[in-house]
Amino acid sequence: MSEREQRIRIAVVDDHEMFRAGVIATLQPYFDVVGQAADVEGSVAMIAQTKPDVVLLDVHVPGGENGGGAEILTKSRAYSPDTVFLALSVSDSPQDVGSVIRAGAQGYVTKTISGDDLVSSIKQVHEGYAVFSPKLAGFVLSAFQNGPSANGAFGGPIHDDELDRLSNREQEVMRLIARGYTYKEVASELFISIKTVETHMSSVLRKLQLSNRSELTRWAADRRIV
């Protein structure tokens, strides 16, 4: 474990004390756990004080106006704009997934995740990647695609001129990456090398003027093209 990885500063938000303690015990060998909280108000105050690199955020926590992880995320932006949020929840419903992703979470994993995979997911979101539990990929897209009619947050028309910038292969790679596939999974799905996937991904980001996988996921979901 490198020093750089150990310096990633983590905070854990969950209203179940035993679960929170277990997560912290799992993460402490790998990261610097700088804070924990169990409700909306305490979480916002803790994040403002500690300014962690990554917050593991439960979707349903008590307090606040709406009592949820999305409210914590929204309110914390003003105090710690560089903090990245990874939702960690027992819920796998499209409504819950959509609420925190729209609020700006970098990823969403369920509490069935293994300790090793959780450590890996934290490192990935810290590096700018969007991370979702494999079975949630469809839910994420469903939440983006079906939610706009209710709240108007997304749902603009497909911009064919933007898609036309991409080759057919680049569009295939873009759609799989936006669904939460890893480079290795994309390579296996399309029968190409991981290096080729990386090359196509770089081209996609450049042509669409996006910075990372998270922006691409939101770009694709916004346009309902995945």
Automatic annotation (TrEMBL):
Q: Which InterPro entries match?
A: CheY-like_superfamily, NreC/VraR/RcsB-like_REC, Sig_transdc_resp-reg_C-effctor, Sig_transdc_resp-reg_receiver, Tscrpt_reg_LuxR_C, WalR-like
User: Matching SMART domains, A to Z?
Assistant: HTH_LUXR (SM00421), REC (SM00448)
The stretch of residues making up the signal peptide is none
Q: Which residues form the HTH luxR-type domain?
A: 159-224
Q: Tell me which UniProt keywords the record has, alphabetically.
A: DNA-binding, Hydrolase, Phosphoprotein
Q: Where is the Response regulatory domain?
A: 9-126
Q: Which Pfam families match?
A: GerE, Response_reg
PROSITE patterns reported in the protein's UniProt record:
HTH_LUXR_1, HTH_LUXR_2, RESPONSE_REGULATORY
CDD domains in the record, alphabetically?
Answer: LuxR_C_like, REC_NarL-like
Q: Which GO terms describe its biological process?
A: phosphorelay signal transduction system; regulation of DNA-templated transcription
EC no. given is 3.1.1.61
State a single Gene Ontology molecular function.
protein-glutamate methylesterase activity
Q: Which residues form a coiled coil?
A: none
- Modified-residue entries (4-aspartylphosphate), positions: D58
Query: Origin, by domain of life?
Result: Bacteria
PANTHER family linked? TWO-COMPONENT RESPONSE REGULATOR
Put simply, this protein is called Response regulator
Native source organism of the sequence: Bifidobacterium adolescentis
Name of the coding gene: nreC_2
